[in-house]
Records
---
Amino acid sequence: MQEYGWLLDVYIQDNTAVLWIKREDGSLIRITDSYAPSFYVKPIDWVDRYQILQSLQDYEHTKAVAEEDKIVSIAENTKVKLIRIETRSVYGFNILVKRLSKDHEVYNADLEHVQLYLFQRLRIEPTSKVAFEHYNGRLLWMKKLDDENIVEPPPFSMMRMNMLYSMHKGKRELHEIEVYDKSSVFTVKKEDLIDYISMQNPDIIVLPKCDEVALQLLIDNKLSISRVDEQEQVKRQGSWGGRILIGDSIIGHSAEQWGIAGLVERARFGFLPLGIAARWLSNKTIDSRNCYELMKRGYAIPREEYFESARQLCELAERDRGGINVTPEAGILHQNVASLDFDSQYPNIMLKKRLSYEDPLGNYDSLGLIAIAIEPWLRRRLMLKRIRKELKKGSKEREYCEQRIDALKLILVTSYGISGCCWNRFGNVLTFEEINRYSREAILKAKYIAQQRGYEIVYCAVDSLFVKKNGANREDYESLAQEISEKTGLPMSLDKHFKFLAFGKLKSNGVSSALSRYFGITFDGEIEARGVELRRNDVPEFIKRFQAEFILQLLDHDSIEEVIDKGLVSAKKVLRDYLSMIRDGKVDTMQLMLRRDLRKELDKYKVRTSHSMAAIQLMKEGKDVAVGDTINFFFTDHDNKNPACRVRTVPEVMYDSVFYSKILMTAANSILEATGLKVESTKDYKLGLC
DNA sequence: GCATCCCATGTACCT
DNA sequence: ACAGGTACATGGGATGCG
């Protein structure tokens, strides 16, 4: 009987492929499929070939041995006679690969088994909508159904939880679990958790420090997880018994930011199970897509094919340069500025110029590996952007759409980033440099065209151009972008139309302005900022709120005269209000917390940074602190000689009002300095302080 | 002997 | 194990001062 559903998870267990499918009625079904792992080996000569074939004939681990013609290098593209070894088990596979790879080139040998199964046998991306049939739980056939135009993600349910610990006889113990439901939070006792999970029956469970916590939970609850390979299952691919377990912070985003839609997008691009797609970084994810595309085309995957030739230093200096930029004038308030951006500049360059690892200069017209891997996804992202325009702001559909767009953006940008990276199996520095060269060329051309049309260049960086012209309106800027698109062959569009815009001064020398540090207000009345305090994650909420308010009060006016007359006055009032709030000790300490990530083990810190000191305090209180944790702390005595006495993690002591006044002033000053607006003297405010 | 400046270094965050 | 860039604290040594 034919059934329909979505491919929730796939993994290899006990030498069998296990597929979990979420059916349309919401039920979950587990189906198995046979899997015989295989790889290739290249004989050195005919004697060697004979020996390999002989030695494997009746070997206990081999199921079948055969010769096949395969392409083994993207650079050469010619077929080579390889020996294909099909093994009886994952164990046998590992033994044979280890033995043969000592003296031979082996192929398809360093991919995960689930990848080999998906690429060679199932050939359907996990999370896809599928039609299938099974007999007694054995897969008979499965077909991918098209759901490419549906913005809504598959109906996978997600549950997010947080662990609360308590101290018991000097030992840290899991006490209860906080579970986040759509809008509410409630706690579940440890012993009730498994019942609760069974009741809610989520497909995806999001939990902090996924692997350790998940394993411990399952072991604590004696849930048939004693077997080593099941523990491996959880650790390596984040799935267990039809549920996907992922960490709460995934590749730079939280699980919510990705959303199921974003994760599905990543899984489909990587041709990977959701749990793996959620934990693998971009290099591996893109490698996965590359390998799939190559295997589909008759390639055997080499262990490494990274290319970098030795070159003269002067040649390097000439070629290996990043994007150019024109430093903006700081200290003045620009009016009527437009920012024009090349859309997906790097991916478009790679495609248009046919640049790829194997053809770094784009000499041949054929589609290279990079284009093969990303072209469909660049097109898909454009389609999603078109769909987004039709979706209402704040609607669920729009959010799904945006999650997909963001996930693809990361993949596309990263495919440029890894093009010349030595960790990339197929990487080639020449390709990377050539992309940069075209990027420079394009932005130079854009600059030239804008100047020809009488626009003043305010700022120009890798893929964006800030221009202004007296009396120019939105349509003028749009047609300029249009012209640049046509002449460079790379799509460019108007991003923001600023009423007022200012660039931050470089803190190090105070003169030239900083790259990518600006703020302004658009004609839609929206504040836009890059790089300044209010955009920084480690700055206290109170300071960020202040700076946003300060900029709004200063710039939300119709003319520069009004900014000077009214804006400056009301902004100064905001500054005074916030300063007195700090001075009077009225600010909620939670609003003054700095957040900083612990990026290595505590004992590895050479410098006693404030957040590492805070982390030590937390540890002494019995909290568990680990790499990757975000430390929340605030300053109680910033100038204390002893770094350990400067900070606190819990708001039991009064904050250091001098310190917070100082950074508030800095946040205000960097705005005023950037605009060049004269305040009599910022010392005035300091007087009010002491 | 102590405060202050200078600067390399370490660390984290942003685009 | 994406690249490239900035900001800013720390702490040891140099310098200044009494």
Note: Residues 461-462, 515-517, 530-531, 535-538, 596-597, 599-600, 605-607, 609, 611-612 of chain A lie near DNA strand B (CB under 10 Å from a C1').
---
Amino acid sequence: MVKLKDIADTLNVSVGTVSKALRHSHEISDEVTDLIIRTANEMGYIANSSARNLKTNKSYNIGVVFVDKSRAGLGHDYFSTMLNSIRDELSIHGYDFTFVSNVIGENRLSYLNHARYRRCDGVIIVTADFKDQEITELVESEIPVVTIDHVFNNRTAILSDNQEGLRTIVHHLHENGHSKIAFIHGEDTSVTEQRIASFYQACEELGIKVPKDYIKDALYHFPKQAGLKTRELLALKDRPTCIIYPDDYAYMGGLTEIEKHGLKIPEDISVVGYDGIFLSRILRPMLTTYVQNSVEIGKQAVLRLIEQIEKPRSFMAKQVKIGGNLQVGQTVKKIG
Amino acid sequence: MVKLKDIADTLNVSVGTVSKALRHSHEISDEVTDLIIRTANEMGYIANSSARNLKTNKSYNIGVVFVDKSRAGLGHDYFSTMLNSIRDELSIHGYDFTFVSNVIGENRLSYLNHARYRRCDGVIIVTADFKDQEITELVESEIPVVTIDHVFNNRTAILSDNQEGLRTIVHHLHENGHSKIAFIHGEDTSVTEQRIASFYQACEELGIKVPKDYIKDALYHFPKQAGLKTRELLALKDRPTCIIYPDDYAYMGGLTEIEKHGLKIPEDISVVGYDGIFLSRILRPMLTTYVQNSVEIGKQAVLRLIEQIEKPRSFMAKQVKIGGNLQVGQTVKKIG
DNA sequence: TTGTAGGCGTTATCAC
DNA sequence: GTGATAACGCCTACAA
């Protein structure tokens, strides 16, 4: 590995000069700068990030917390697209990222200490158990943190606009004449809370009555369970005319169940998903679903984090809501 | 950030002693070691990886090349599962990883130079354009490299056993009485080459004739195109009784097309996928498909790479083939 | 405009 | 068994 000193030696200048020239310092004359840069390239010089980091106390490395107990995370379009977006945006700004876990080798290391060990300039928490004490510790630490889809006190959060999402869906259904709307929602998280609240609110606004047994509790990304809940809904005396699923994957379970009952979508029953995964556009009938803008969410997370890192004085924590859009497919029938 | 010197000062010992004690050196007495470790914990000491890296020239950081031009990569179960597996296995051995791209900030950096800049101990190439000159450069460099699903000269490669995959599929079809088997394959890569070769070989072994127009060229992960090719196949005078798709996603396109023709799976036509994605198990009829063992592939990639890093002398490059297994679903009809 | 030298936090090689 | 001390490669005052 060629280093500054090697370049300095071959050119008979000092390391300091080389260092400055490579960083385009105005202290160094243009010709010397030119020569040094050319020579550095010829010699294949690559800076040593560790040495630089040690000196400057900046790693240009961001920690990403991505805990997916259920193994659903990375395999889920919502998160994989977001991660891609985060990676791309970081790269544009000269940052890399490392996954921050709480195990590394033999000795456990908390998320915070892992991030400290790698001298991360900041951390993005994409998915995690937000009740975990270690996550709280990380969020409250000296390291700049941005969370996604979860708000912590005085910290920046990027939020998919779930209120708008459910509101849009309910209004769309209402416009299509539906007033018997069932909602199978995901497990208890702040995201779910918001969706449920927004669902009720929109229904109230539109004068839609919601029988208690139209609301079903399920898990995200769990088709089988959504299937079971669908069965319960189909067994009701007063069947809903439409079912809103926790997400597009869960809908797949509902689909199977609906077909088992000999019903057709949307002729016999309408359905709506959430997320807008790749497959929702592929399958026929194309799924009506609310598409979360995961690319923008990832991008904003990066931009807000970098802002916080590079301009700590002027930075103010805030919540950024990112809206999505309704993908109107063929699974909602116009009735009435 | 508390450092060695702080601990040394509070205990009135030297930094050297602290350093050794924390690494359980036998030079230091048990009591002193104990005391130092306790104090370090109390003071919240976390090592500085950059300083350590600078000194030891080991980063415990692995570069991962994951280029997905089509954005399919991370969103694809095969790769996302593999990446998860890589992350987990690395973590067990005390390594982190960083994505290695060829852009970082304003100045382009080749993959190799990016890896060098981050002082990666090794690199795993998960997906990439293997014809790219920069990839070749990386593979031929001084950095230990393991590639996945592609073999380079004298380098370790972990390969999903595509020969076995196609062979298994064809034999399964043959056992179920099929002899008119169409194969829509993916774009031209070494993986595809192997699958095609293996397909022909298995057919030959079993005395199955393969008309030229039973073989169709398509792209992976591209349902629409697979749908078009399906249409061509269905239009043939002598229709195949079964279609093998490039992957499970592509099959979804075929599914739509088949339904459009008013045909039912598997009564009117049988189908087989490849990969064993989450959805293949969810949808009904459950898809018959060859499940690639992406978890094991990721794990082996890590183990072979670490072996190469930590025991360079005894290391020998080799190709490791990882077999999968046939998921027998309900999409292949027993005929004849 | 260029050079010098100290130090970032750690490890490792010597003395003692 | 413990303590100085010299690197590792880079940046940056400050001196020339």
Note: Chain A touches chain B through 53 residues (CB under 8 Å).
---
Amino acid sequence: MDALLTQSGTRPRADARRNVDRLVTATRQAINEQGLAITTRDIAQRAGVGLGTLYRRIPSLDALLAAILTDTIDEMTDRAQRALDAPDAWQGFVEFAEAYVQLRASSCGLHEALSGHGGRLDLELHITRLQQAVHQLVQRAQHTHVIRDDLDWCDIPFVLATAIPADHTIGLEPRSDQWRRSLRIILDGLRPATESSRSPVVAGGLPQKSVSAEHSGR
Amino acid sequence: MDALLTQSGTRPRADARRNVDRLVTATRQAINEQGLAITTRDIAQRAGVGLGTLYRRIPSLDALLAAILTDTIDEMTDRAQRALDAPDAWQGFVEFAEAYVQLRASSCGLHEALSGHGGRLDLELHITRLQQAVHQLVQRAQHTHVIRDDLDWCDIPFVLATAIPADHTIGLEPRSDQWRRSLRIILDGLRPATESSRSPVVAGGLPQKSVSAEHSGR
Amino acid sequence: MDALLTQSGTRPRADARRNVDRLVTATRQAINEQGLAITTRDIAQRAGVGLGTLYRRIPSLDALLAAILTDTIDEMTDRAQRALDAPDAWQGFVEFAEAYVQLRASSCGLHEALSGHGGRLDLELHITRLQQAVHQLVQRAQHTHVIRDDLDWCDIPFVLATAIPADHTIGLEPRSDQWRRSLRIILDGLRPATESSRSPVVAGGLPQKSVSAEHSGR
Amino acid sequence: MDALLTQSGTRPRADARRNVDRLVTATRQAINEQGLAITTRDIAQRAGVGLGTLYRRIPSLDALLAAILTDTIDEMTDRAQRALDAPDAWQGFVEFAEAYVQLRASSCGLHEALSGHGGRLDLELHITRLQQAVHQLVQRAQHTHVIRDDLDWCDIPFVLATAIPADHTIGLEPRSDQWRRSLRIILDGLRPATESSRSPVVAGGLPQKSVSAEHSGR
DNA sequence: TATGAATGAGTTTTCATTCAT
DNA sequence: TATGAATGAAAACTCATTCAT
């Protein structure tokens, strides 16, 4: 995120940093309310700064959006890498899956961007790193037979995306833990046939390990 | 869709009809590539007509988008209603689920619109009708115990919603039948524990009943 | 008006003439309802013909408008010239004044055009002829001392224009004979002091000589 | 007119105010030359600013036009109200008539708008207030018998309305004081028969009380 | 330095005019 | 021949970005 600080000078970046923070927060808020179709004016107003200040801190709107989305992607990658250290392969996978879904769910801009329509934003590098981490994680789970082996590893990120509450689907208001309910179903569908013991879909059905406050839908 | 033809009385001239078709096709294409943020100029160019022609056939860009999305929604509703007639509740539900996911997959603009960021388009009425049909269908499946009963009926459309290959998820190219692979997993996750016999996730794993050509993503 | 008939061929102009008539009538109607801001589509629809037919008969919209306005101007000129033959100079002047005001009042398009904002229409030649006729008429009236001689002849057309009911002035609905009421006042103001016998401003206060049906506000 | 300045709180920056002034002036000029059918591009060019600047200062073209016209109407109303305070009823009326005619003359856009073809602009409220003031003024003049009593009060605004030099009437170039010459005649026509002493129609024939510079046709 | 004023390319939409059917 | 379909230039308006204050 520091990449956003345009100038590389020597001096007291105190308020500069504060402004960047405000801008990022305001942008996240705006994206969650209106998707990627936001205006610089809107962002500046929410952040309580002028347009000039915005552009002093940020090279362009797209750069700001990309930085924010990149940040989330990197967090996902981080989660995947940490999950590789979990002693239990399934448990590790579940932890990642939760984080992955929640992060996407709490940043509908990301979902929009990854859905292909934010194509102008260059996220390539970061996405590749995420891919690799997920690949390893799924492989481990399949090698230890905790995920059914008739799946390609690529199927996993696709089916996990399914858990993201597409805001109103068919006009229905999603519960705040809708993603958790969907994930439960999907995880059940991922287990090998022999393992398939259903745990009821209720709040608390999954470990409540929460994602870092940084991304929880501000 | 014929509602788009502005004039009413006489049979439209051959070239007029051809142009409407081209415009609708071009718009579908454009939406699938770029989402709802498309321009009239882009549509007209893809359709190979002038801007004036576009506006001769269509009252406004929003009206065109709404017509296309409404059309898909209505097709979904139709599928849900027909599925209620299937003798087997699970089989009926699967048929609908397939159609629902495939239709969403072939019209990612719909996904965007339903995701709330297409709010300017008025789809209310059509969505309500879809809701009712889905509600009935899921209820029947739960009453006959072919879908696990720890789920709320609302969970179903949510978990199915993004089985569309959210274009590149984490930068991966989706297979053409990616939606079918995700659906397989989800359906497995929806069965009651006792029923859970896994059928392998491969092409052809589900009955290949295809959606009417009208919507197959042209 | 015949100038409008585009082709100069040899054959049965019967329906051609009919179409021109319809178009002219439709245009007059439209102008009176909406001013000069009318569309070809509107005219064609009112006339019950297609756009192609309109353009077969008429070189351009401006040409049509000019023809119609020209026609009215020529009628004014004609009235002025006939008024010169009236035995009584004042009576002749009054007759012209009436026709002049009524013609302008019944063709608000004309008023709009002459008010300078229809400048794209070339009415020069016809207006010059009208000028000359009015000049003579006023001169005769002043030479015989029936119009006060502290006026320039040019003042007359200007002050007569005053009688045209500027539709709603200050939001008031004009009476159908509003122009006649105004004209009465103006004519009173034009007489030499010695002649100034007031005749009450009521309907019928002036001779009801009506303008040829051709122009009576269709 | 200040209502046009979009922002409210702080004092507008010098250049902002300068641009608003330029825009208003440019618009007045444009209206006087071409009527209400002016374009934003034209206004912006005359004012020497970009289109964006125009829209930063003004919510819409119609709002700008309405503001300008409203301003003139209110000035008229003000004049009528002040005229009620004149000790002599006729003198008061003449003062108003002058202002009324001159204001209309200096804003022919107003003429157009009031003529009904500017219907999209909402001037209702302001016009009503003008009506009331004029009504009172004329009533007072008639009750004291300085205006002939065979007239309806409504006749007065009508007969005064187009004393504006309807630009070229019949192609004649109006003198700069043409409106004054017409007004002289009309006022003579308004007096009761017994009062009718003609004062010659020459420049200076009426008190030269000029309208505030704000409206003198810049 | 921080602000918000200015800019103009780009977007939706209209309409006079031409041309295929 | 009559129709109305097609066209694109032009209009109102928005918004990312630059620059004067």
Note: Residues 15, 44, 49-53, 56 of chain A lie near DNA strand E (CB under 10 Å from a C1').
